[in-house]
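Lecture notes, continued. The same structure-token format from the folding unit now serves as the input rather than the output. Read the line below as a description of shape only.
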């Protein structure tokens, strides 16, 4: 499944200045998701950035490098039948990412930092 963002509301202030926040609001990103049972492969790409691929089994923990260069431990879990929650922890920050399947055509990405900053991004399915 491939999805493309249609916009966002709110940007996590921990990632930098106003120019970055404004750019993120207008730059589209895509999530290419493959699921086989509990195993997920998610490839995220957007213009001007190197793509990022996550491969994990829901319910397990994996490591990855965050946008700020820090290594993080990511705990994953199902939240109901239509949401997958990722809790990202580094030495300097912690945030929760939830991918929510609203319907066959729409995914909502929810982000919330430990200090309460929230963002939401809506993705629509792209036919390939």
């Amino acid at each position: 499944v491939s999805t493309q963002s249609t916009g966002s509301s709110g940007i996590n202030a921990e990632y930098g200045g106003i120019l970055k926040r404004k750019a993120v609001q207008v730059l589209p990103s895509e999530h290419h998701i493959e699921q086989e049972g509990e195993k997920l492969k998610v490839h995220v790409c957007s213009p001007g950035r190197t793509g990022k691929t996550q491969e994990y089994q829901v319910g397990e923990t994996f490591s990855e490098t965050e946008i700020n260069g820090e290594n993080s431990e990511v705990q994953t879990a199902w939240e109901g039948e239509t949401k997958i929650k990722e809790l990202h922890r580094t030495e300097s920050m912690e945030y929760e990412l939830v991918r929510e399947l609203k319907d066959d055509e729409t995914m909502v990405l929810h982000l919330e930092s430990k200090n309460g900053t929230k963002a939401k991004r809506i993705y629509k399915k792209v036919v390939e």
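Point for the exam: Residues 11 and 17 are 10 Å apart (CA to CA).
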